[in-house]
């Protein structure tokens, strides 16, 4: 097996080491393929499919982040099929998730002419803000399910395994086991999850507080306010 | 009731791949799997608690929260829907004085819905879970049937017709080892043919996989045999969940030894000593019949160590699915066996090199494996005598809906759809409106297409498919939007949520299908964009086919989703 | 819902974490002079995007209202102060210290350099001490953490730093972690160790009495009785020799005294060690084989084996094992004492030690001394100064009249605190430079407010000898100033008072100018410049020339002392052992959420999650004492007693209790004893005998709240990883 492969990406020929992804090869050519879930430091799972490209005009589009370059293949990073997929994914995402604090995705929306109101009467994934620890808040209404937080909490960094997925399909959300508050979970508050969150779903509490207009002193004094919020809510 | 410790005792020293069996034991014993159970499982199997919780929440038949003593789940997929499933749910709730998905005040009953139970020939069907007992699937359930009385034995007897795989199967009799005989094909393979010889006969037979992906079986076996890495595995995909499909259930219930011998032949051919039968959780009857057959065969020395005195040994283990259609996708199925949420993996790498536990694995459908003993015993040419050049051998189809005799039929590829419906199934009840070919992930055919020959190649030519072999027949009384609505709900319910197009697309598609009676302007285009996006960009076969029925309906019926008064 | 607008930073500043010795690179996102978010660059060593809770969320101390804003001058009894101007305070300090120098000589002044401050701060500090105070009485808390390792490594190979870089960890084949609860004390390093095990199949051997989180990742866990470490290591060496698993080639090329050494090992059989340590002989054999037969094996250790009366022996025993097997001098092989504080390596490197100038250039070497004398235009004392443990005794004996403490809190970190406090009360003059008031500065005559890490420029040197930049991100807090500026001002004033003819030079325009002076006097640092750090992020010293790439792993071709020396060791203990009166063994250490004396972590949100000291106790002991988690106990040793709550956990072995030392309300060091290792002078922090008595809740904030309602204090052995 040869150590390198040669392919064309948008009519540019390029030779790369075998195993290079289409995303990496395109970047070498200066061709920017959009991504949402992809992150250099986490395992790529090909989730968002915003990075799909057309390889050899195949029946299926391929996620550039997980597709290895194949010798002799012809890749189009932007054509009508690719644009329809990207646009529709962005439109569907925007109809489900609060993306106001995700500027990179907002930029993609305008790059792909995505209509923010494409899906009227669409069910949104709405979740109450979780403010259960002194360090960060979780607003899963802003979560795009990129999985990065779950991955860095597990084998991509921390090996703490405090986070998982609850439910499936559209109703999937990130949670602790039995949805227990963070301080009761194995969480060690390393904040690797906050560090890789691409939207406003995970935020340092200080940042969130300042966005709400609180002063640092007020934030300091807002102690474990909602640690037992759920129980209070259940009580009445 | 067993204590947690008693349930966990046999699992000491096991690892994560024992998670699904432990969860089943807990779910059955306690009706749910709570925090204490999860903590103890975590330490026993060395799996983080959050991961266990994530797995519980993925599978429909597991519950992290306490449930009622009895949970009644009624199938509401298209065929059961046509047969009055909604009315069953309604009456049941009324009788129990609860709403759908509610619990009776005494904590005894809850009524919910389920996706297809593979009893479409006896629609409508229901699955009853009672704490401390195995699940029971019942069909047909009429609005009057007493689902609260649990001394029910399955009354269903499928109509079965066939002379090759289904020879002697009458839907009533379960074969014993004595009926079946002492695995003659396996003996022949071990003593005469050898592994290469087995693969040679399979290759000669032209056998194409019956699971839906239509991949040549021999190639798969050859690649796995040649792949580096040990051990190798055989996985029998018995997660038959495609709405309208029940042929594998019938095979498992009637011919368990035929399947086991097929599994053993595959293991022998590729060099595996361990095989899993992944049977969907909604098939309790199949599960215990297969287990009984494994015990019988092991006892007779046909499975286990040194089979027929040779070096070949094989352990076959049944894994019960937890209730997730996605686990019919082969890599999702591996994840389930390994004790994870059933998220499909990115391919490549393919199972032939990186399958179960990242080892070379053959995963074949039940029907595919059940053809193997015949091919090995009589030779590939024997199998090829039936069918066309590209669609060899007999093929099973599940026919349900508006025909006089819904059931499982062994057809010889080449016969037309009309012949099947008229000659085998006793004809359509009423006037045919449409046939949904290939299951929920299939395509609609119209009456003018009845002359299509039932072969892989002819169906492909009209952009249809055998798929899982499901053929759902609807007459003019069926409400097309209602069928689409049920399909939409099915995919929304079964999308695993991994990739965005399917996770979001199945939801948005369902929402638009729900309002089919009063569509909004642009809904047709929305469905079109969602459909093509899911088809072209989803990660796995589920998403890639979740819109195929809808897209074919849009094509066949231009008026669908048209807003009144507006041009289409 | 319309969300509040997203905060965007006024500026972001790349800097180095001020907590443990890992030296994580971080970006501070600043809005309105508040650090509202901390991120980490994913492309940079040593942390590659990772941080721990302290670095990520524990920097709010920088703007805590209790920060010192102005100089304070004692006005009455301990803890009573009045605000003063800088002019007044600096003049007072300069006059008093000058007076003492004149009356009693500089050797009557003891000084604490600071393992939290920058290299530049410490360089200037020791320059002032040596050139103006004319004494070598400068030491710092490294004495209390790694003196055992330093002394042992110096004796055996001539260098005491970590031999490997953090980046090499992922490629380990086999590694032994001993006396280090790495996941809590060096959290980010532990990530690479965990990854080595889980992703790359490395074998981990844990040798530790406590069931630390890493045991969950270990192939083998040797649970020795506390204080019996040497027995286990020696028996491993015995096995390696008996089974001829040693590396003859390496031994003949690179070591000396091998024959004497193997003779000395004869008695240390695994069975003998089992008797002493409780570790099954077979496990010792397995560990020895696993280590010896690995391709690349390394040791990682922490305070657990260093803070001991036999700390030096422990380090020697580990070095013996590395020399026996040749597991040193190649990537991924070596000896790695994990440094506890952000700049404890750098403080030592910058000359904050009583016997050496920068980079361990000996003060006793006339040529070296001459170099510094001519650079500083003065004569320097050739006599090694006092160590921190000796300073306390010196104060008690009247030999020490004044103490200068820069950014340390000896009245939390010294052993036998009552004794230390008593000694410090004897002093004529005490000056502290700090960012917060603490237990020590309450006794001071003058307190000078200093800049935190976020308010100044400079460099830190992390545990793997990587010099990295610290950059100013926030304006000065109140009137606080960088430590080096404060020291320069005092030095300049003192030179004037003492009528020094030719100033040693304290008029640096910025931190970089200090570094420049330092690198010109220090061959090992010469190749490192701020400009290089700007481009490369960090450079591992030794780095002798501007085009030298730096040295990620040490000892490839030789050891600083030439050949590695085997040391024959005796086994014995003079630690305080449990007896009828004090039947429990107390061991002390850190928890994830706090750091050192708590100066920075207690005025932080970190304190909310771990708000109080907790005594870890084995369930069997709890059963005997009829205690359950959350009960209050009085813990008493022969030196003092403290009251705190109990957490029942299998983490500690039967008979051993663990108490973190961060909490003033139950200061663990009131209980520890000031017995020291004879060579390293490090105290026996891990070994004290205590008795336990159930008691009532004290009058203390939060004492009325149930334990499980407070913070996240939970039994870590609950979770599977």
Describe the protein's architecture and organization.
The complex is a heterotrimer of chains A (236), B (568) and C (721). With 236 residues, chain A is of the alpha+beta class. Chain A has 2 domains: 4-81, Ubiquitin-like (UB roll) (Roll); 136-235, Alpha-Beta Plaits. Helices cover 27% and strands 14% of the residues of chain A. Chain A contains 8 helices and 9 strands. Chain A has helices spanning 22-28, 80-96, 103-111, 148-153, 192-196, 205-211, 216-221, 229-235; strands at 4-9, 12-17, 52-55, 62-63, 74-76, 136-138, 164-166, 173-175, 202-204. Chain A has a 5-stranded mixed β-sheet with strand order 2-1-5-3-4, with helices on both faces. In chain A, strands 6-9 form a two-stranded antiparallel sheet. In chain A, a hairpin with a 6-residue loop joins strand 3 (52-55) and strand 4. Chain A is globular. The relative contact order of chain A is 0.12. The model of chain A is unreliable at 224-236 (pLDDT under 50). Chain B has 5 domains: 4-58, no CATH class; 70-143, Glutaredoxin (3-Layer(aba) Sandwich); 160-384, Rossmann fold, CATH 3.40.50.11540; 395-475, Ubiquitin-like (UB roll), CATH 3.10.20.600; 480-556, Up-down Bundle (de novo design (two linked rop proteins)). In chain B, 41% of the residues lie in helices and 13% in strands. In chain B, helix 10 (247-254) runs parallel beside helix 12, helix 19 runs antiparallel to helix 20 (500-514) and helix 21 (523-537) packs across helix 23 (548-556). The model of chain C has no long low-confidence stretch (mean pLDDT 93). In chain C, helix 2 crosses helix 20, helix 3 (119-131) packs parallel to helix 20 (483-497) and helix 5 crosses helix 14 (311-325). The longest helix of chain C is centred in the first third of the chain and has 19 residues, at 86-104. In chain C, the strands form 6 sheets. A 7-stranded mixed β-sheet of chain C has the order 5-4-16-15-14-6-7, sandwiched between helices. Chain C folds into 3 domains: 72-144 and 342-539, Rossmann fold (3-Layer(aba) Sandwich), CATH 3.40.50; 147-337, Dimethylsulfoxide Reductase, domain 2 (3-Layer(aba) Sandwich); 584-718, Barwin-like endoglucanases. With 721 residues, chain C is an alpha/beta fold. Chain C is globular and about 70 Å long. Classes of the chains: A alpha+beta (236), B alpha/beta (568), C alpha/beta (721). Chains in contact: A-B, A-C, B-C. Chains A and C meet through helix 5, helix 6 and helix 7 of A and strand 3, helix 1, helix 7 and helix 23 of C.
């Amino acid at each position: 097996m040869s150590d390198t492969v040669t392919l064309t990406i948008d009519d540019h020929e390029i030779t790369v080491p075998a195993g290079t992804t289409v995303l990496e090869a395109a970047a070498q050519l200066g061709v920017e393929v959009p991504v949402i879930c992809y992150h250099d430091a986490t395992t790529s799972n090909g989730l968002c499919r915003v990075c799909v490209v057309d390889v050899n005009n195949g029946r299926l589009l391929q996620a550039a982040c997980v597709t290895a370059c194949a010798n002799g293949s012809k890749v189009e990073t932007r054509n009508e099929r690719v644009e329809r997929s990207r646009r529709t994914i962005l439109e569907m995402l925007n109809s489900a998730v609060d993306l106001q604090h995700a500027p990179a995705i907002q930029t993609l929306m305008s790059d792909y002419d995505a209509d923010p109101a494409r899906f009227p009467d669409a069910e949104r994934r709405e979740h109450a803000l979780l403010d259960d620890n002194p360090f960060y808040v979780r607003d899963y209404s802003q979560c795009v399910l990129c999985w990065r937080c779950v991955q860095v909490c597990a084998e991509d960094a921390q090996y703490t395994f405090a986070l998982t997925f609850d439910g499936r399909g559209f109703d999937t959300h990130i949670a602790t086991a039995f949805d227990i508050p963070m301080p009761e979970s194995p969480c060690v508050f390393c904040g690797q999850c906050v560090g890789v969150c691409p939207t406003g779903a995970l935020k340092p509490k200080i940042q969130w507080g300042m966005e709400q207009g609180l002063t640092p002193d007020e934030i300091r004094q807002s102690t474990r306010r909602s640690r037992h919020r759920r129980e209070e809510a259940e009580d009445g | 009731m067993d204590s947690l410790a008693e349930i966990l005792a046999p699992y000491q020293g096991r690892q994560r791949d024992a998670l699904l069996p432990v969860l089943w034991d807990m779910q059955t014993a306690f009706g749910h799997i709570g925090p204490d159970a999860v903590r103890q499982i975590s330490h026993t199997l060395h799996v983080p608690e959050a991961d266990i919780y994530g797995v519980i929440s993925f599978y429909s038949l597991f519950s992290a929260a306490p449930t009622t003593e009895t949970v009644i789940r009624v199938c509401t997929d298209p065929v059961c829907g046509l047969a009055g499933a909604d009315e069953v749910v309604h009456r049941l709730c009324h009788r129990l004085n609860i709403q759908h998905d509610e619990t009776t005040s005494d904590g005894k009953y809850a009524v919910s819905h389920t996706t297809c139970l593979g009893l479409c020939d006896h629609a409508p069907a229901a699955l009853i879970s009672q704490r401390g007992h195995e699940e029971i699937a019942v069909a047909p359930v009429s609005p009057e049937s007493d689902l609260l009385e649990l001394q029910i034995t399955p009354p269903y007897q499928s109509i079965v017709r066939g002379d090759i795989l289904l020879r002697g199967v009458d839907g009533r009799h379960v074969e014993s080892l004595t009926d079946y005989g002492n695995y003659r094909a396996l003996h022949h393979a071990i003593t005469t043919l050898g592994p290469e010889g087995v693969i040679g006969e399979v290759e000669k037979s032209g056998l194409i996989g019956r699971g839906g992906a239509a991949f040549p079986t021999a190639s798969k076996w050859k690649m796995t045999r040649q792949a580096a890495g040990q051990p190798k595995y055989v996985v029998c995909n018995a997660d038959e969940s495609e709405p309208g499909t029940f042929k594998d259930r019938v095979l498992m219930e009637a011919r368990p030894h035929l399947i086991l011998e097929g599994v053993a032949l595959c293991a022998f051919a590729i060099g595996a000593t361990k095989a899993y039968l992944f049977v969907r959780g909604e098939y309790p009857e199949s599960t215990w019949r297969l287990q009984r057959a494994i015990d019988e065969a092991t006892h007779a020395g046909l499975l286990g160590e040194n089979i027929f005195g040779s070096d070949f040994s094989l352990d076959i283990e049944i894994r019960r699915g937890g209730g997730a259609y996605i686990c019919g996708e082969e890599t999702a199925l591996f994840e389930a066996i390994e004790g994870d949420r059933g998220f499909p993996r990115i391919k490549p790498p393919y199972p032939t090199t990186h399958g179960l536990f990242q080892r070379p694995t053959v995963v074949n459908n039940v029907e595919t494996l059940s053809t193997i003993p015949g091919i090995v015993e009589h030779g590939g040419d024997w199998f090829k005598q039936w069918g066309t050049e590209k669609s060899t051998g007999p093929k099973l189809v599940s026919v349900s809906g508006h025909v006089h005799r819904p059931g499982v039929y062994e057809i010889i590829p080449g016969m037309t759809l009309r012949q099947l419906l008229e000659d085998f199934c006793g004809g359509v009840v009423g006037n045919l409106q449409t046939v949904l070919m290939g299951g929920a992930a299939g395509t609609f055919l119209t009456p003018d297409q009845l002359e299509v020959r039932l072969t892989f190649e002819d169906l492909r030519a009209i952009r249809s498919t055998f798929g899982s072999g499901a053929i759902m027949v609807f007459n003019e009384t069926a409400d097309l939007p209602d069928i689409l609505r049920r399909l939409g709900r099915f995919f929304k319910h079964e999308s695993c949520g991994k990739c965005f197009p399917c996770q979001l697309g199945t939801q948005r598609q369902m929402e638009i299908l729900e309002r089919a009676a009063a569509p909004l302007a642009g809904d047709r285009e929305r469905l079109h964009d969602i459909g093509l996006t899911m088809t072209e960009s989803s990660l796995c076969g589920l998403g890639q086919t979740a819109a195929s029925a809808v897209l074919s309906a849009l094509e066949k019926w231009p008026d669908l989703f048209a807003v009144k008064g507006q041009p289409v | 819902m319309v969300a509040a607008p997203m905060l965007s930073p006024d500026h972001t500043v790349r800097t180095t974490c001020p907590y443990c010795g890992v030296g994580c690179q971080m970006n501070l996102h600043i809005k309105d002079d508040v650090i509202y978010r901390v991120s980490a660059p994913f492309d940079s060593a040593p942390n590659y995007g990772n941080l721990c809770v302290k670095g990520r969320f524990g920097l709010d101390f920088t703007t805590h209202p209790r920060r010192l804003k102005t100089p304070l001058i004692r006005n009455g009894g301990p803890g009573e102060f009045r605000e003063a101007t800088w002019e007044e305070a600096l003049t007072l300090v300069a006059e008093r210290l000058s007076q003492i120098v004149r009356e009693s000589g500089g050797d009557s002044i003891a000084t604490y350099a600071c393992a939290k401050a920058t290299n530049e701060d410490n360089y200037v500090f020791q320059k002032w001490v040596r050139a103006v105070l004319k004494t070598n009485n400068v030491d710092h808390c490294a004495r209390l953490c790694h003196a055992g390792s330093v002394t042992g490594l110096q004796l055996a190979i001539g260098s005491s730093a970590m031999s490997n870089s953090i980046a090499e960890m992922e490629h380990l084949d086999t590694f032994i972690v001993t006396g280090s609860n790495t996941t809590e004390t060096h959290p980010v390093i532990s990530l690479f160790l965990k990854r080595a095990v889980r992703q790359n199949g490395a074998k981990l051997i844990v040798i530790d009495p406590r069931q630390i989180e890493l045991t969950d990742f270990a192939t083998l866990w040797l649970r020795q009785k506390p204080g019996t470490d040497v027995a286990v290591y020696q028996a491993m060496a015995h096995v390696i020799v008996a089974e001829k698993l040693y590396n003859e080639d390496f031994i003949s090329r690179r070591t000396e005294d091998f024959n004497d050494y193997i003779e000395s090992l004869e008695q240390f059989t695994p069975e003998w060690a089992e008797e002493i340590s409780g570790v099954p002989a077979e496990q010792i054999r397995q560990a020895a084989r696993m280590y010896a037969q690995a391709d690349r094996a390394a040791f990682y250790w922490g305070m657990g084996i260093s803070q001991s009366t036999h700390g030096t022996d422990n380090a020697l025993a580990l070095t013996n094992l590395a020399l026996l097997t040749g597991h040193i001098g190649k990537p991924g092989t070596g000896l790695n004492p994990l440094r506890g504080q952000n700049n404890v390596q750098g403080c030592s490197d910058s000359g904050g030690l009583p016997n050496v100038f920068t980079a361990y250039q000996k003060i006793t070497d006339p040529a070296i001394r001459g170099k510094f004398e001519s650079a500083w235009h003065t004569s320097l004392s050739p006599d090694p100064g006092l160590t921190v443990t000796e300073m306390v005794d010196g104060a008690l004996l009247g030999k020490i009249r004044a103490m200068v403490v820069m950014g340390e809190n000896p009245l939390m970190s010294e052993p036998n605190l009552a004794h230390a406090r008593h000694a410090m009360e004897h002093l004529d003059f005490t000056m502290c430079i700090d960012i917060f008031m603490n237990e020590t500065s309450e006794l001071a005559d003058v307190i000078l407010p200093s800049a935190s890490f976020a308010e100044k420029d400079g460099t830190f040197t992390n545990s793997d000898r990587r010099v990295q930049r610290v950059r100013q991100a926030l304006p000065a807090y109140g009137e606080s100033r960088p430590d080096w500026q404060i020291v320069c001002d005092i030095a300049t004033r003192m030179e004037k008072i003492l009528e020094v003819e030719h100033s040693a030079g304290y008029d640096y325009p910025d931190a970089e100018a200090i570094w420049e002076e330092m690198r010109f006097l220090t061959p090992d640092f010469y190749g490192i410049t701020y400009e290089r750090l700007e481009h490369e992020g960090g450079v591992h010293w030794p780095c002798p020339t501007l085009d030298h790439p730096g040295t990620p792993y040490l000892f490839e071709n030789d050891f600083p002392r030439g050949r590695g020396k085997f040391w024959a060791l005796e086994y014995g203990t003079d630690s305080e052992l449990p007896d009828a009166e004090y039947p429990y063994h107390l061991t002390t250490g850190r928890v994830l959420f706090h750091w050192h004396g708590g100066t920075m972590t207690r005025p932080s949100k970190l304190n909310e999650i771990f708000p109080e000291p907790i005594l870890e106790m084995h369930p069997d002991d709890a059963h005997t004492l009829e205690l359950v988690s959350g009960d209050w106990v009085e813990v008493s040793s022969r030196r003092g007693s403290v009251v705190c709550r109990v957490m029942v956990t299998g983490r500690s072995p039967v008979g051993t209790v663990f108490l973190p030392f961060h909490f003033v309300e139950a200061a663990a060091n009131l209980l520890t004893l000031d017995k020291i290792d004879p060579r390293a002078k490090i105290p026996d922090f891990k070994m004290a005998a205590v008795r336990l008595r159930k008691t009532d809740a004290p009058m203390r904030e939060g004492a009325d709240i149930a334990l499980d309602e407070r913070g996240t204090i939970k039994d870590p052995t609950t979770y599977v990883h």
